[in-house]
Amino acid sequence: MTHPAPGAGPAAFPLTRPRRLRSTPALRRLVADVRVRPADLVLPMFVKEGIGAPAPIPSMPGVVQHTRDSLRKAAAEAVAAGVGGLILFGIPSVKDARGSGADDPAGIVQVALVDVLAEVGSDLVVMTDLCLDEYTDSGHCGLLTGRGDGEWTVDNDATLVRYGQVAVAQARAGTQVVAPSGMMDGQVAGIRAALDEAGFPELPILAYSAKYASAYYGPFRDAAECAPRFGDRSAYQQDPARATAEGVREALLDLAEGADAVMVKPAGAYLDVVRAVAEAVDVPVAAYQVSGEYAMVEAAAAQGWVDRRRIILEQLQGIRRAGAGIVLTYWATEAAGWLDAG
Ligand code: PBG
Is 88:126 a contact under the CB 8 Å cutoff? Predict the structure, then answer.
C-alpha cells in the first residue's frame, strides 16, 4: 500500500511501515513475542562411574563428564540460574551385551539420581534419558540379534523388555520423568505398562518421538562413550530424507501409547518437524539442541567468527518460535543467566 507523496518526494510513500515498531529498544521490547524463559530450558548432564574428577569433553568445550559430586554442584548452579529441568545420562565403567548397568540399582544413574534429588529434587524437574546405548558393549540402543547373514540388527521387542526394566529401575531411584530415546517401535507403550505394573502410574514419559539418525550427535558419542562399534543407527532412528509427516506420525503414535510430552531431535535442522508436531499435538513439545549444534557454535565462536551469546540466544528463539515449549540445551545454565539479566 502506498499513498501519493507530497511535493517533490518519491512518487509514492509506503503506507505500511513495519520499521515503525522497530525504532527504539523500548518499542522492540514491548512488541517482542518470542520469549525464552529459564524455566523452559532443560540441561543435559553426563555422570560417569568411577572417575575422581570431572572429565572435559574435547568436542564439547565447557561440558564435562561429571563425578557424582560435581554433578550435584552443577545441578545446584542450574537451579540458581532458574533452569526448568535437567536430564541425566550415565556412563558405566563396564558395558555388556544386555546393558546391565542401565537397570542395576547400584548403577551410575540410579546412584547419581539419589544425590541429585537430595540436592535439587524439588527445585527443578529431574529427568533421566532411557536408553541402552551407553550401557551396551555394541554401543547400540538395544539388544542385538543375528539376521542369519553374519549381520546384526537391533531386536525391537526384546529391547522393549529391557526398556521396561530400566524404566522401573529409574523410577525406584526416584526419577521424576523418564525420557525414552531409543526409537524402538512400541517403546512408550512398553514402558508405560512396566511402570504402571510396578506401581508408578503417575510417572510421566517424555518421549523422544521424532528422532533422526543425525550427524549432529557426533560429539555426544564422545561425551557418553556410546559410538556404535559397528554399523550405525539408521535402522531405528529416522531418515533425514523423510518428509515432515513421518515425524508427526511418530509423535502421534507415542501419544496413542501414553506419552505425556513429545520431543523432536535434533532441533535446528528439524524446525519444520517441531512446528508440524506442535500443531498436531496438544501436549508439551520439547526440542533437543544436540551436541553437534553446540559444538559448531562453540568452535566458530572460539575463532571469533560469530558472536557467541547472540547466536545462542537466536538459536533458542528460533526453536521456541518453531513451537517448542521446552528446549534441551547444553547452554541451559549460562543462557538462563542471560535471560534473567534481561
Ligand atoms: C541415545 C541418545 C543420543 C543422544 C541423546 N540420547 C545419541 C544417539 O542417538 O546416537 C544425542 C544427544 C546429543 O547429541 O546431544 N541414548
Answer: yes
For residue 217, give every residue at least 6 positions away whose Cβ sits within 8 Å of its Cβ, in sequence order, or none.
Answer: 266, 290, 291, 292
Residues with CB under 6 A from ligand 1: 129, 131, 133, 141, 181, 217, 220, 233, 290-291
Of 132, 181, 214, 289, the one to substitute when testing ligand 1's pocket (max ligand atoms within 8 A of C-beta) is: 181
The domains of the chain are located at 35-340
Digit-by-digit pLDDT tens for the chain (342 residues) are 677 666 656 668 999 999 999 999 999 999 999 999 999 999 999 999 999 999 999 999 999 999 999 999 999 999 999 999 999 999 999 999 999 999 999 999 999 999 999 999 899 999 999 999 999 999 999 999 987 677 888 999 999 999 999 999 999 999 999 999 999 999 999 999 999 999 999 999 999 999 999 999 999 988 888 888 888 899 999 999 999 999 999 999 999 999 999 999 999 999 999 999 999 999 999 999 999 999 999 999 999 999 999 999 999 999 999 999 999 999 999 999 999 644
Contact 338, 311 (CB under 8 A): no
Residue closest via CA to ligand 1's atom 2 equals 181
- C-alpha span between 84 and 105 (Å, rounded): 26
- The label of the residue with cell 558393549 reads 137
Identity of the residue numbered 90: G
Nearest-CA residue for ligand 1 atom 5 is: 181
User: Which homologous superfamily does the CATH classification assign to the domain defined by 35-340?
Assistant: Aldolase class I (3.20.20.70)
Q: Annotated catalytic residue: which of 48, 73, 95, 265?
A: 265
